[in-house]
From TrEMBL:
Keywords (A to Z) from UniProt: Oxidoreductase
Species this protein is from: Glycomyces harbinensis
One Gene Ontology MF term: oxidoreductase activity, acting on the CH-OH group of donors, NAD or NADP as acceptor
Keyword set includes Lyase: no
SUPFAM superfamilies (alphabetical): NAD(P)-binding Rossmann-fold domains (SSF51735)
Segments forming a coiled coil: none
PROSITE patterns in the cross-refs: ADH_SHORT (PS00061)
Family statement drawn from the similarity comment of this UniProt entry: Belongs to the short-chain dehydrogenases/reductases (SDR) family.
Residues making up the signal peptide according to the UniProt record: none
Pfam families in the cross-refs: adh_short_C2 (PF13561)
Cell cycle found in the keyword field: no
Protein name per its UniProtKB record: 2-deoxy-D-gluconate 3-dehydrogenase
């Protein structure tokens, strides 16, 4: 049997409309999973829906704003009726400002979207997985789960929290059949990093440190996503796997 085969599995991918989430949903569908795509602005007949159905898999879109606790609660209630095998917590946001100018509004938004909502959704979906005795949970962490970053104190705090949450849930749930892991993308060319890509000095400094010599692409996350969602990773839990072109090894 192919340990990476996800045929018959149902995967929820948050932040699936574009970027890393799009690539993750596409990779899971290519491996055989049906997809529930979640995003604040996902629309009928979206690009990710067309891609998943072109791969022969079913797709369902659920709009949800992760900055709205009520919307997250409604999403969790809706997913309670679905036999979710894989939960990919990828929805996120970033706000850039020096720490001395980083407003409460920025802090509250980033922590709500990137950490609090992730826990609330995982608590609900994870409880159903525990009842069934199996499941795969994948968080999108960050290089800033290991480092402090520059001008993004809220984001660094949230992504450090994701690393801790991954380990905490793995400690409780792995023995009950639910593995919990995270992927830490490096510098990936997406909307979230556009400001860095557009800054010649910052972009040059980043590229000089990446042994791979290039910015990452969203599809660079595909292999790690399928691995952590599949039976190939049944003895892997509580880990944060960097996919960073060698950045952390420099």
């Amino acid at each position: 049997m192919n340990p990476f085969d996800l045929t018959g599995r149902l995967a929820v991918v948050t932040g699936a409309r574009r970027g890393i989430g799009f690539a993750m949903a596409e990779a899971l569908a290519a491996a055989g999973a049906d997809i529930i795509g979640v995003s604040a602005t996902i629309e009928p007949d979206s690009a990710i829906e067309r891609r998943v159905t072109a791969l022969g898999r079913a797709f369902k879109a659920i709009p949800a704003d992760f900055n709205d606790p009520g919307a997250v609660a409604r999403l969790a209630e809706a997913l309670a009726t679905e036999p979710v095998d894989i939960l990919v917590n990828n929805a996120g946001t970033i706000r850039r400002a020096p720490a001395a100018e980083h407003s409460d509004a920025y802090w509250d938004e980033v922590l709500q979207v990137n950490l609090t909502s992730q826990f609330a959704l995982t608590r609900a979906v994870g409880a159903a997985m525990l009842e069934r005795g199996r499941g795969k949970i994948i968080f999108t962490a960050s290089l800033l789960s290991f480092q402090g970053g520059i001008n993004v104190p809220g984001y660094a705090a949230a992504k450090s929290g994701i690393a801790g949450l991954t380990r905490a849930l793995a400690n409780e749930w792995t023995a009950r059949g639910v593995t919990v892991n995270a992927i830490a993308p490096g510098y990936i060319a997406t909307d979230n990093t556009q400001a860095l890509q557009d800054d010649p000095d910052r972009s040059r400094a980043i590229l000089e440190r990446i042994p791979a010599g290039r910015w990452g692409r969203p599809d660079d996350l595909a292999g790690a996503t399928v691995f952590l969602a599949s039976g190939a990773s049944d003895y892997v839990s509580g880990t944060v796997i960097p996919v960073d072109g060698g950045w952390l090894g420099r």
